[in-house]
Amino acid sequence: MKKCIWEFKNKIISDRQGLGLIELMIVLALLSITMAIAYTFYTFGLSTFSIGEKQVDVQQNARMAADFITRELRMAEKVVILDSHEDYEELEIEENMDDYLLYYIYLKDGSIYYERMSGPDERDIVENISGNIEFDLEFRKSEAQDNLIKFNLDAVNIETGRTYSLETEVMVLNLEEIEDQSDGSGSAVFYQIPAPPDPYIESIVLTPQVHGYEDSGTQEVDITVSTHNVPEGSTVSAEFRDLEGEDESSEVQEVDPISDYPVEDNYARFNVEVPKYLDYGDYFFRVSVVNESEDVEISQRRYYYIYPQIYNIEIEKKPGEPHFGTVTIGTGGVPEGTEADIILLEDPENEDSVVEFSYHSGGPKVNEDGDIIFEIKLENDEDYGKDLVLVVTIGKTTKNSEEFFLEIDPILEDLTVDPGSLDPVFDPYIQDYTVEVESETKNIDITPTLDDPDNTLEINGEDANSGEPVSIELVEDETVIGIKVIDEVENLSRTYTVTVKKGND
To answer: What is the pTM of this model?
Structure first.
């Protein structure tokens, strides 16, 4: 028995076989083909990415150069096109060099350079990222307009040979005509711009610039000062003055002035607490920049206003309400309950051309949202349809609306019914009425009379005549009758409604 088991085990072991040589070669061949295909895709993608990246470099450098040239030339006061940068010695400069800054932009050895005459050495305005870009630049004068200069800019990647081209034109705003001393196109341009005073205060920004009157408290005002060519070690000071009178004689307000605040990199920012209880009026901050060692003392003022703001005035006809217009006035910095002075003028240049009106609802007072909302009714019908100006005054602040007009819808002079009577009693500006009649009533006569005989009438969509009765057949319970007055010239209309109800007797 043991012998049989031993022989069976030996047979199993002897039947185990590995890969043969042919099988191994087939596997290696397939693997090699797969890796070759994968590597081909990898190298293709890598190459494509590299080409794309280089092209982005080319485009970026070209656009940077074009933007720089455009900015420089747009505000120049003299522009001359030259064949090359070597021709600048032949230019005749008449203006005082102290009053102007003179520059060149030119192509040399495949790079674009920027240089100031009597200034620092030339510099590459792009300093391209890859270092493998060669430029070609060509300026020419436009034939269509004398102050228009065109330039073509080509950027070529030396490795790939790919080119990115730009064609741009610049309108020189401060110049009537561009000079052309080239043979039709050149690779250099000379230009000059006025030299700014040195040093000076570029800007003073107040935030906020305006505030409204209040009884107490203060408002913090941020002051941002930007300067030009101010030497290191300069300081800035500020004082707050009433605008009334000359600078020297105007009253200095009781605020804590800023003194000897350092100016760093031509920039300073600080704040001042301004009392809110100051009277309405115009004020200013005087900002001074001083550097005693450099004999620098410059100052500039920035206006500051304390008064209520009237932002906007809106006037519109109120739908369904004859003779009324809704006025909405947006304000700011005005305490709730403040009353505005409102007038209507037919001629804004003539204060005597006042148009009479009354407040239909609301009044000229500021509500909790800072708005003034009311309705007006013109006292005289002949004023409707005229161009009017609404003038709003709050404190010292006055604002006019744009010219507007309120339309008056056509009206009836009289309206009668038979049998029965109108409820309420007829009023030309009331449009809805009811009439009660006995249950056996079959018809009712409606007699409308026009206020303006040039207008026309319709009753239930049918033409009718002024002053003549129209018989209307009644239905069970109630009958609604519409009387429409039409002004065809002004394209306006008004509809009166009469609801006839039968009694339950």
So the answer is: 0.36
